[in-house]
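ugh ok fine here u go
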Amino acid sequence: MPPGPIKRSHASAPLQEVIGRLGGKWSLLVIASLGDERKRFGELRRGLGGVSQRMLTLTLRSLERDGIVARTLYPTAPLRVEYELTRIGVTLLEPLAALAAWAERNRATLHEARKRYDARATREASAANRRGRAK
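structure:
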């Protein structure tokens, strides 16, 4: 049975805090990419495609700070660093999979809604411009 609406008490500070931390463009993608395996920085970056070195570094640091990702440094020459999900990070995989499934199911609907909105906004802007010139 699907969950009911989010109660107001649940939509307060804890939810805002978590969404604020995980809602960035790359955080959830990093978590999904790590899944159940360790990866080196370069592997993560190649797998994500489009993320800059700086942004990936900042994202990983943030996730490490929150205890979602663990960073292991191996004292080799050159240094080797691997990242993996912590125990609590792994618990994000199930809700993330549900979100990914929702996105896949609703992708076409979302694209159609955007097209309708953009077409309406363009018509309204054109009408406003015509009214402005007519004055």
